[in-house]
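Most newcomers find our protein records easier to grasp once they have seen one. Nothing more is needed to start thinking about how sequence determines fold. Here is such a record, shown just as it appears in the course material:
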Amino acid sequence: MSPSTPDSVLVCRFADGDERAFTTLFNRYFNNTVQFITALSGGRDTAITPADIASEALFKVSEAIQTRHYSPNGKFAAYLAQTARNLFIDYTRRTKKAPIPQNRLANAETDDSKINLLFGLAPAPPDNTEYCVAKDKLIDLIHEEVERLPDFQKTVIGERLKGFKFIDIASRHNAPTNTILGRHKDGVDKIRRRLTKHPVTQLYLTSLAED
């Protein structure tokens, strides 16, 4: 794929099933999107890193293209930037009540802390015993559900828990980045669906709401 191929042409090719076209778009815009999110955050540490938000934004755009819901009024870059901005605002609102300590991600040394970041579990209030117990049980369930996933999903999520970036995982497995993003999203969504109605999940959500 030529580096000079216009975005609009790459979008059309990807819509027609050429995954290499979106890989080109991903490589073309990933770093700029990370810088954009970093600027929005003002350099503050967040539960979800700028690289994670950039990856998810690109994945959402890829979904829109594949499902024929992509109808930008302007350029691909502007559509991607708006998607990334909306995601950042959404994450900011969801974590506003639970500030994340500085360098939390960089210093995360256990699977539990990484799973908290990966699945969006808020930091446990030290004075809420019910919340802490429910959170610990939910983390155990998440571990079990990761093991139940098909190998191609379990591998991607496992490497994310070890701190690998999506683009690095794609390189390790010689696969398109959007394929890795899809496997990760499908695996996480599958776990969430399985756990949504579990009593431990309900207890966790109830205790969080009451805090």
